[in-house]
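Example record for the data management plan.
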Amino acid sequence: MDSVFKALADPTRRLLLDRLREHNGQTLRDLCERLEMARQSVTQHLDVLQRANLVTVVRRGRERLHYLNPTPIHEIEQRWISGFDKPRLQAISAIKNQAEEYAMSNEPTAVPTYVYVTYIRARAEQVWQALTDADLTARYWGHANVSDWQPGSAWEHRRVDGSGKVDVVGRVIEAEPPTRLVITFDDVPDPESPREASVVTFLVEPHEDIVRLTVTHEKLADQEMLNGISQGWPAVLANLKSLLETGDVLPQAPWEMYRSHA
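Corresponding structural encoding:
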């Protein structure tokens, strides 16, 4: 974690992270304009943040979009906070957030895009299969992701406890095996009160014996959904990583940790 603390020690880099927290997915030009800094200076600070895995870059055509990556900060929280006084800190944080909400205007605020990056010792084809094979998803997710994974096809996130209940539905927007999968994600499938589905992009980038898997979750309905996936995606992807690298999932379901510490 030395590179993380080194990156966070600089006030300019912390300001860059604040700007991305306020509005994720900015180009270098956007960040330069908001900070009124020279392009070269911003680039140098972003390079340090990228090396610390605090910022990740997602290419969209010719653009390079910068996203705040919560993984290293999540690891710091798990190591130094989670096991000590988390309930009291959560209560203090809730009071602080409520006070800030009262102090602000009633204007609705946009929910930021969520981005998570992990590195896996596997081939791109293996990661693609783990994302799309119903039996494999059942092992590391506790749900079977069922679809033919063709653009326009439906997909279901189906329980494997024998009930057959579907907790998430959506459609396949893009499928480019084994590197890119884009799906809609509706975790409240209610025909009587429908809402716009969020969008999840899986980007698999191979490099020699490893891949970088970037999960981008956009168009989130509200802060509650952001809070939920911020706990869910790290747990699911940790289980996926364990399965591909060791042949087995983690000894305990990682998402159970959040419930036991709540």
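Summary line stored alongside the record: The beta strands are 55-60, 63-68, 114-120, 143-146, 154-159, 166-176, 180-185, 198-207, 210-218.
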